[in-house]
Design a protein that fits this description.
The complex is a heterodimer of chains A (343) and B (149).
Chain A (H helix, E strand, L loop, with lengths): L11 H28 L5 H29 L4 H5 L1 H24 L6 H7 L12 H17 L3 H7 L1 H8 L2 H13 L2 H4 L4 H28 L6 E2 L2 E6 L8 E5 L4 E7 L2 E6 L13 E3 L2 E3 L6 E2 L16 E7 L2 E9 L8 E2 L1
Chain B lengths: L2 H27 L20 E7 L3 E7 L6 E7 L8 E5 L10 E6 L4 E6 L11 E6 L4 E7 L3
Antiparallel strand pairs in B: 1-2, 2-3, 3-6, 4-5, 4-7, 7-8
């Protein structure tokens, strides 16, 4: 969390992860090129580069798409989410090398503009086997490009979280285009079934993970809270919430995080203003509720980020009777001071 | 994540759970089978019955075929695997092994079976029967195929 923008949001942990990503990419490309040199010495360097970068970029994209549901299934994957943005930009850079060399190799040797050639050299849109698969890859690359250049808090704030998130959800369109780019491209010519098996395994894993995580979230949203009393719903017992931690309840329409801090319970809206992270899955650090995704912080008593920041979330009323915690789901305006409920 | 966004994610992945397998399976089923390429061999698309010589490896099978009275001679080329050279041509090998002195038979593509007419030099007992598979873009010999016993 920072009051000003920097080109790359590096800290010690992010640098550590970036080095890991870099080392993995170098290792992968080296092994791929070495094995190709041994087993397929007739391949040109351009071909090896196109193939190695394509497989690496696709592998990274599968990992990136798996991180979201994995964190919703198990919190141990949260550090991956914290570093997902850098992994995404890395993946785009590698995909760009693949796309760039492909256009150079296949479309830059004639008189036609390479980008015109890309879309006009094959127009068999009515054939599955001969479909112009390169156009699919190009469109996916355009989406990834837009995502990569806007992968910065500057754009998140200026585009607004809603538009930014909508733009970044186009990654699913890009993923579908890339799968079809591979299936209608190399798989049509390469008799080795390994490509088909890997694509199928990747897609099956991602679909399974996302459906499991999504269904789990829906179930959470649909948990009933029947004991209504004077606008308050019974949500849990006081000792069910750990010190400096929260429990999340979806009482009415939205999720509310109920935090315990120094003998008082506070309730704030569960959605972080930065990228919609689940505030209730974070913890209180230095007296502030800290989002588990990117470390944005809010004061528990008023839902405001500490100065000089100006993010605010809704606050809610709580009541404790005996050991029972009661929550009123009617939100106060963002940043409204509430005293909390003393235990 | 707000509730509407959670719902949108779940909807998208339910949609992808349908679209991805359908797309993958359709693409897999549409992979072309090995087929003849009639446009490249207009003169002799009919397989001749008698095999005069044959050479074979994991990637392709090469035969010299003729009719019963050997008045017609034919080269049969079958790609068993996808050829990794998209610009391959077949030459009838020269005595000195030099591609410049070899005679062009025809061009083949990555997949398929090809049939090319040959002259009477390829009849039984009429000397060498070797072919050169040549990549004319990279200007390199891919393989030498010798059909002599």
């Amino acid at each position: 969390m920072s009051a000003s923008y920097s080109a790359v949001g590096w800290n010690r942990q992010k640098k550590h992860y970036d080095w890991l990503i870099f080392a993995f990419c170098v290792l992968y490309l080296s092994v791929f090129i070495l094995l190709t040199t041994i087993f397929n010495p007739q391949y040109t360097f351009e071909t090896v580069l196109i193939r190695s970068t394509s497989t690496l970029a696709f592998l990274l994209l599968n990992v990136i798409l798996a991180i979201g549901p994995l964190t919703r299934i198990n919190k141990r994957f949260l550090p991956l989410l914290y570093n997902r943005r850098h992994l995404g930009v890395t993946m785009f850079t590698i995909a760009l090398v693949h796309g760039g060399f492909s256009i150079l190799q296949f479309h830059s040797l004639g008189n036609t503009n390479p980008f015109v050639s890309l879309f006009t050299s094959n127009t068999q849109f009515n054939s599955v086997a001969q479909f112009p698969f390169q156009a699919l890859g190009f469109l996916a690359l355009v989406i990834l490009f837009l995502m990569a250049i806007t992968s910065h808090d500057f754009w998140l704030h200026n585009l607004s979280p809603k538009i930014w998130k909508t733009l970044h959800m186009f990654v699913y369109v890009a993923y579908f285009l890339i799968v079809m780019h591979v299936m209608l491209g190399v798989v049509q010519y390469e008799t080795n079934p390994v490509f088909f098996v890997l694509i199928l395994a990747g897609a099956a894993s991602l679909i399974t993970l996302h459906l499991i995580a999504g269904t789990k979230e829906v179930k959470k949203d649909q948990l009933p809270f029947d004991f209504k009393n004077d606008g308050f719903f019974y949500v849990c017992e006081v000792d069910e919430i750990d010190e400096s931690r929260a429990k999340i309840f979806c009482v009415d329409k939205e999720r509310i995080a109920v935090y315990k801090h120094e003998g008082v319970l506070y309730a704030i809206h569960n959605v972080c203003k930065h990228q919609g992270g689940p505030l209730g899955e974070g913890k209180i650090l230095d007296g502030c509720i800290t989002c588990p995704w990117h470390g944005y912080q809010y004061l528990p008593e008023n839902g405001q980020s500490p100065p000089p920041f100006n993010e605010k979330v809704n606050t809610y009323d709580l009541r404790i009777t005996g050991t029972k915690v009661w929550l009123n789901p009617t939100p106060y305006p963002e940043g409204t001071e509430r005293p909390g409920a003393a235990i | 994540m707000i509730r509407s966004l959670r719902k949108r994610h779940l909807f998208i992945w339910r949609l992808l759970a349908f679209l991805l397998p359908v797309g993958i399976i359709i693409a897999w089923l549409s992979i072309p089978k090995q087929s003849t390429q009639p446009l490249l061999q207009p003169e002799t698309t009919t397989l001749l019955p008698v095999v005069l010589g044959k050479a074979e490896n994991n990637s392709y099978s090469v035969s010299i075929r003729s009719n019963a009275d050997t008045s017609k001679i034919q080269l049969e080329w079958i790609n068993k695997k996808t050829l990794e050279y998209p610009t391959a041509t077949i030459y009838a090998g020269s005595e000195n092994g030099n591609i410049k002195d070899a005679k062009l038979i025809g061009r083949i593509e990555a997949r398929g079976n090809w049939y090319f007419p040959l002259d009477s030099n390829f009849k039984n007992g009429s000397g060498r029967k070797n072919f050169i598979l040549y990549d004319f873009i990279r200007q390199q010999v891919i393989d030498n195929i010798n059909l002599n016993p």
